[in-house]
């Protein structure tokens, strides 16, 4: 936008620019939409009629914040959908693969595992050693 106007000497000029905040299309937002949009600084050129010199002034840039939609919404929908699907898949997989066993069958199977046999062997060895130790103590007290 360019304005050309003649301003008398020793006068004040105020220029304002109205804008309407509106939502942009999805692809029109910059990568960091929450940061806002940079409005370029204005360049004011003053022409001196007597000496034909040009003086230029630059204003500061402006950060314009527009209303931004919640861009995390698609991410939230994907995460929620994947969570529900994984829970459904896990449940169906367990129902199809795992064998249903009663408590009595489980206790019988658990008693016959290699680990259970090893535990029983260690316990019996410890009890035998304790029995031998007590027998040694009793024989020593009798003597």
UniProtKB/TrEMBL annotation:
GO cellular component terms, A-Z: GPI-anchor transamidase complex
Residues that span the membrane, as ranges: 73-97
Protein's GO biological process: attachment of GPI anchor to protein
InterPro entries on file: PIG-T
Signal peptide: none
Keywords: Membrane, Transmembrane, Transmembrane helix
Keyword Transmembrane helix recorded: yes
One Pfam entry name: Gpi16
The name this protein goes by in its record: Gpi16 subunit, GPI transamidase component family protein
């Amino acid at each position: 936008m360019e304005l050309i106007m003649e301003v008398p000497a020793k006068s004040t000029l105020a220029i304002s620019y109205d804008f309407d905040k509106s939502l942009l299309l999805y692809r029109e937002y910059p990568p960091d939409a929450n940061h806002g949009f940079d409005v370029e600084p204005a360049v004011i050129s003053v022409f001196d009629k007597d000496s034909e010199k040009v003086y230029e002034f630059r204003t500061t840039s402006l950060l314009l914040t527009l209303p931004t939609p919640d861009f995390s919404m698609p991410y939230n929908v994907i995460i929620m959908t994947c969570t529900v699907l994984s829970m459904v898949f896990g449940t169906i997989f367990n129902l199809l693969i795992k064998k249903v066993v009663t408590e009595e069958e489980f206790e019988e199977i658990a008693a016959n595992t290699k680990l259970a046999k090893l535990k029983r062997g260690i316990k019996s060895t410890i009890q035998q050693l304790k029995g031998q130790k007590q027998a040694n103590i009793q024989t020593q007290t009798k003597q």
